[in-house]
Each structure stands twice: as C-alpha cells, then as structure tokens.
Fold this protein.
Amino acid sequence: MKVLLLGATGNLGSRLIPALLAHKHSVVLFVRTESKLNSLVDAATLSKCTIVSGDATDARAIEEAILSNHCSALINSAGKAAIFPWEAPRMQGIIQAVSTAAVEASKKLGHPIRCWFMGGLTVLDYPGKEGTRMSYYFPLFKEHGHTLDYISSKPMENLQWSLLAPSAITPASKEITLLEAPRGNSLVARNDVPVDWRPTFLSWVPYLGLYAEIVMNMMRYNTTLEGCADFLAADLTKGESEHVGHKVGIIVSNEKKGL
C-alpha cells in the first residue's frame, strides 16, 4: 500500500518510517523541513521514501501529495494536542486540512482513503458508560474529542478513519534505522473502550471517584513508540480493518511483553 505520512519528524512519525517500510508499504513523507528529517533518520531509510515538502495545514498541498503519488492510505502523526481544558485547541487546523484533503482526493481517485489519526486514552468511552468519554471525568487532552468529532463527520465512503487512543508513549530505543523485517508488537486493541479495564471501589466515591479510578488505571496503558508504529503499519496491510470508524484503545499484552 502507498502511504502518505505526516509528522515524520516527530517521535512517532520518525519510527513509523522504518515500520511502514518493513511491512512493504511504499512511503511518501510530507514534511515542512527536510533538513530536520535528514538529521533524524538515516540516509539508507530515506532513500526508500518519496519526500514532499509542505505545510500540514495546507489542504490543497496534502491533496496534491495524495493524488500525485497515488496514495491509498494516510497516517497523521503531526501536531500536539492541548493538555488543559482551558487551552485553545492546537492541532485542529492540521486535522481539518488532512481530513478535507483525504476526502477530496478520494473523490478524484474513486476510492476511499484509509486514514489513521492520533488521539489519547481519555477519548475512549468509560467502561460501562458507553457514549460517555473518559475526558468527562478526567478533563485532560479534551482536544482529542474535537479530532474525533471532526473526522467522524466526514463521509465514510471517502474517509475510512481510525483514531489511535494510547496513554503515554515512550521510546524503546533512540536509534531509528532501517529494519530487515517487521519488529512485531505486543499490543492488544479494542474498539471504543479501554482493553482490560480494572474497576475499583473508588468509582463509588462521589465526585472524584471515577477520576481516581482513571488515574489508577492509566499507567497500565503505557506503550512504546516502536510498538505503536508497528501496530499501525501492520493494520494497513489488512484488506479490511476491524478498526475503521472507531477510536482504538491499546494495551501491552502480558503474554507478549518481550516484543
């Protein structure tokens, strides 16, 4: 599959490059500053990619990158969400540009564009309260809710979206190099609600109980950048993904923690 990647100079994006190549995807990198990319990723890896310069808020430039390179999928890892509820949204210009570009390109290409967007754990529904996002009780990173609302408003026949909803993501290694084969990952995924949520007695405590329960669970959902990158690259190899049209929670499997 030919994949357009935005945010390739970021922590996740730079690790998506070797992961996508290892899964035999053709990779088109949409970057604002090519020199920064060269300082992060080795030349051998970049030689296997097509590089397009542009701004991630420029819908026309993104659409042209999709069309001219005949991309059928897209991953957006560009932008950082606002943390606190009183902050203005930081990345909705990017989300809107990418979504609009994918929809318009899809109409011209005659097929849907498979798209992954990045969210966070609190955009998932609270277990047992489906339809109520965890950000209602734990009001951090609420901007991911704006992302979900926007991408889900687009026609599914054009934008086959998924929203990855991890907790903290940290690097397993500082090195970003070409992979001979997919590294694999130890992640288990579930649509719309967290995987393997552990209820506690705290949920019955008035006012702050659900907040405390979320805090107690959150660290269990920490993952690695490399694991998330492989998960996304592997999903794009599927003819049809079970995650289309869903926010996707992930957790490290106890049985596969060595991967």
Notes: The chain has a mean pLDDT of 94. The longest helix spans residues 92-109. The CA atoms of residues 57 and 241 lie 27 Å apart. The beta strands are 2-6, 26-31, 49-53, 73-76, 113-118, 159-165, 169-170, 187-191, 223-224, 246-252.
